[in-house]
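Listing S7. Sequence submitted for prediction.
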Amino acid sequence: MKLATCFAIVAAALLARTTAWTDGPTVDADLLERGRRVFDEKCARCHGKTGDGQGPAAKVLKNKPRDFTMAVFKFRTTKTDGLPSDADFFRSLSDGFPAYGMQPFGDLPEDDRWAIVAHLKTLVATGLDARLRRQAQENGEAVDEADIARIVAERTRPGTAITVPAEPGGHDAGAVERGKALFRDVKTYNCANCHGPDGRGDGPEADNLKDDWGFSVRPRDLSRQREFRHSGWRPEDTVARILTGIPGTPMPAHPDAGATEAGARGLWDIARFVEFLSTQK
């Protein structure tokens, strides 16, 4: 399967959907072309025109732009058995991640943002296809067309949606203290090992962490969480991050943590502690 064929298949699959998004426009050829144009104008400077994270500005950025061709995405409401949801992509684009250096694009017309999402997903598929071919050639292996097509299809479909449990009993006065204890407990989540006991990103492992691309990464200083709150971050987002982890980074997933009421209570207590940290100077 050539790259052009792979792109055509992805585009055809997108076009075949009568309603491409929960709230967005139907995907058609015009939307895909619009997405390419807006992506090239607004996103390629950092992410590169092919989405490989090698745009001209990438070399000067402390936080390296996402390489879409690896099909690994940090922030999501889905498991890692596929891509984030379309709504996840749309929210990330709209709200940005100021703490990571990504500006919000909520001022773009809504249809432009949905168009970027559509184009981004074609970049993921074509880039992943090319990466798999390159790996086979580097390993001296024959290119297995059927296997590559299967892997691309599996890794570019939406992942299984996670369920963020409701906060049992609502927010109560003891949540922050309970969350602090869980945050520091080495037998449960062991958050302090990386983030430090007070969430300032200074835990004992903080200097030893690398991401899947081999770059050194620092744990988030959660006392600066207000930077995320300015871009719409909510306590339930912290719960989601504990459940899914942050793919591509050392932060692990705890997919079953909210399966019981006690587990859900613990997740929300940690989220309330993190929320509290963002109010401290």
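Caption to Listing S7: primary sequence and predicted structure tokens for the chain studied. The two ends are 55 Å apart (CA to CA). The chain is about 45% helix and 0% strand.
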